[in-house]
Amino acid sequence: MNDRAFPTPNPHAAFDTLLDALADGTITDEQFAELQTLIRDDAKLRRRYIEHAALCADLHGIADEANTIEAEPIPMAKLAPSTDQRALGGRVRTPLYRYAAAAVLFIVASLVAVLATRTTSPTGPGPVAPPSAAALATLTGAENAQWAAPAGELAVGDTLGTAPLTLEGGVAELVHGRGAQSTLFGPTELRLTSDNACALRTGWASFNVPPAAHGFAVETYAGRVTDLGTRFILGADASGDVHLRVTEGVVSVSQNGSDRRFDAPVSVTLRKAGGIVAERGETSDDAYLRHIAASADTLQCYAMRGATGSTTLNNLAAAGGHAVVLGDASRAANDRWGRPALDLGGTSYLRVPVDGLDSDELTVTAWVYWRGGGAWQRVFDFGHDVNRYLFLTLGADDGRPRFAITNSGKPDEQMVTAPSPMPVERWVHLAVTIRRNADGAGSTATLYLDGKPVAQNTRLTVTPRDVAPVTGLVGKSFYDVDPSLNGVIDQFIVVRRAWSEQQIKMHYSLGKVGQP
Questions:
Q1: What span, in angstroms and rounded, lies between the C-alpha atoms of 368 and 365?
Q2: What's the predicted TM-score (pTM) here?
């Protein structure tokens, strides 16, 4: 893996940002060093700099001061190139620019020398303080956000410059200078490179780009993703491979000098070693599953893929043991992407270890394909004894999904019930969260279907810690009279904290059914 702190942005994309910072006096020491390296090592960028500086020289009246040229400013659109003029970096150098460039050559040479000794002068008073960095984005939201150095402690409302942002845990929301919105899901490493661009090294982030921020770009080790009017999600593996999910609109992906457009909805993988492939083997939500499993808060995390006939399922999370497949596990079905998966079919179920579920908060999420049938079929049922348990059913007596929790028996169940029956014969994303209320008085349980909150109970007085479950069943009830789940469960996850609404929506968006 590349051991640089962040992926190096495309130099041609970063160059304009550096020139702008130099012109308006906001350039930092880090940016000066980067500019020095670019104009020293890249002849094309060096020529572009000469042209840019020549234009600045003209605008500042160098030609007028030399009393050699007197002219009114001419709109660029009216300038026509002659046969001996060359286009540099997409612009045309006119005779006026050639005159200015003669002086600029000296400026370039001087600049390189100055840059090399900028921070320390042997005859001067010591280090030169860099200009203050322009604000490139604002932190507009945070939930359980844990920042590593150099960002340190950040508060909502803080402005952000070019310093690396390492979100070790939680969720953070940014609004970039030109209006693009990004949500980071820790652990994630990102650096802002301009008011309309950033560099993602590892982790996951979602982006919502309004028309004013058209052209917003994200640099990665595997290539550059540029918005063309869209919402998209990016995940960068430790290996440098990048998983892209376009949920709305269009993006352009640049890799090794070539560009490709992708229209929503689509999932693709950008390989660091080169290559852009549609995902049919490993999907974007498979990659995000590994990201979830790496969190210390994740207790159980199962892909459910290739489970047919197995007696155990590997828990991808390090926090808990593996699941055991019980009953008739011989039936095969396809998962959401057409791959072999375990079909519970009303005859089999999973036993999962949940003795580590000792928290006041909770998230349980799964993809479910339900064929219908009798009431009280369970997605899961976690319990300690007949008086202490929590469960999610696809249909109570009234046919609607319900989550319930109690530590004093059935009469005292505290519930949250969906407003309408569970859809059948299609994949549905289900999630339930328990979160401590901000005022410390009780908790809120929220039930989600297909990424949207559909019901809440804000007056819970019982938490998973009060239940202290020791047995966990997936697809089966503790009560033998209740039928087992007639369907397929994919990606079953148990987390010892409450996911945010953004995380639930992102998990749903990544795994939305029917796309490659």
A1: 10
A2: 0.68
